[in-house]
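Figure 2 data, in text form.
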Amino acid sequence: MTKERFKDVREQLNAACEKLLGQKGKEYTRGQDDRLANFKGIAEQMNTTPLLVWYIFFYKHIDAIAYYISHEDIALSESIDSRIMDARNYLDLLYALLHEETAEEPCLDSQSKK
């Protein structure tokens, strides 16, 4: 794949991730402005941390991707593309959770040690 084609594919995927996050976000915010409310609410109910709840939800998507890779002939309830987009969005949510908990400004420097 050429650099130009990869750039186009990545831009399309970024746009699709953003759209999916907007659609699913409405379901998970529990009518609140806090985009992370789902993780916090479940964490409180389960007496654990929002990060652990995030990890369990994220792992579900990674597990589905791994299963697809080893069983490509199986029909999934969601497309593999959707699973990949969900996993990418969950990484964004983790980033937000980490920076909210530490009250630090996000550091977009790729050399950051954090």
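Caption note: The mean pLDDT is 87.
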